[in-house]
Amino acid sequence: MGSMEVYNTSSTDFTLMGLFNKKDISGLLFAIVSIIFFTALMANGIMIFLIHTDSRLHTPMYFLLSHLSFIDMMYISTIVPKMLVDYLLGQRTISFMGCTAQHFLYLTLVGAEFFLLGLMAYDRYVAICNPLRYPVLMSRQVCWMIIAGSWFGGFLDGFLLTPITMTFPFCNSREINHFFCEAPAVLSLACADTALYETVMYVCCVLMLLIPFSVVIASYAQILTVHHMSSVEGRKKAFATCSSHMTVVTLFYGAAMYTYMLPHSYHSPAQDTVFSVFYTILTPMLNPLIYSLRNKDVTGALKRAMGRFKCTQKVSGAVF
């Protein structure tokens, strides 16, 4: 029986099949993912810097956006750097503890973003549909409650699902057919019945995906309804803003719903990998570009920051 042991006890490491497993396009994919990663870090970093240094951006909307940028920087950094380093070193393994940590951080951060995006849509609804009550409904205290609530939901998701996922017995094959330790991919290696756990995870996804997504849709629908009675220019501006926001939000929530809520028989590991790229790698880059850097307030703050930097350079040059 010793040689026929069902579970792998010789190693606790997992092997990530990754995105770069096709040699003919691995170099191109590596370059694309690297560009997206560094663009996401730079764009989100600039957003945080501008929002905290420019007094004109000290409003509830930008306060929430700065936290969205922070979450995006954190959760893309839990996945992509290891992928890039592993490709350069020619390795694919991840330790059990490393996999557990990545799983927990990913669930916590992405869960916090699910809630935050929904509450940010509510912020826009209040600002446009109830402008006179906006200072009361979106006070500093309410903003901090939104942030705290988002993080609480994310931590609850991570603390609830990670211990259960990682305590299942795993079979001899420890090859995760994915580019990071995502729950469905890890569960496919389990040598136990996971039906009950998958039901619990499905319920969590309904709470974390469908409810915030419904809030987003309802909020933007109300915004468009209000602007329908305004000027033509106002309607065009509202539609442009809402459509760009909805595109990113639908990409984010839609891809996650596909992975976590669609029955396994309807999708393959290869499809899961593609959809996971949308909400783990692309979205952190798109969020600051769509939500903020296209905004006149932000571009104005960026110009002022560049102006201050040039003045500092001139002063430094004059001194020396």
UniProtKB/TrEMBL annotation:
Main location per the UniProt record:
membrane
Recorded topology in the membrane: Multi-pass membrane protein
**Annotated Gene Ontology MF terms?**
G protein-coupled receptor activity; olfactory receptor activity
Protein's cellular compartments = Cell membrane
**Ranges for the G-protein coupled receptors family 1 profile domain?**
43-291
Q: Where are the transmembrane segments?
A: 25-50, 62-84, 104-122, 142-164, 200-226, 238-261, 273-293
| Pfam families found in the cross-reference section | 7tm_4
Write out the GO cellular component annotations: plasma membrane
Secretion signal: which residues?
Answer: none
Keyword terms: Cell membrane, G-protein coupled receptor, Membrane, Olfaction, Receptor, Sensory transduction, Transducer, Transmembrane, Transmembrane helix
Its function, per the record, reads: Putative odorant or sperm cell receptor.
Family listed: Belongs to the G-protein coupled receptor 1 family.
In its UniProt entry, what is this protein called? Answer: Olfactory receptor
Name of the gene: LOC112856822
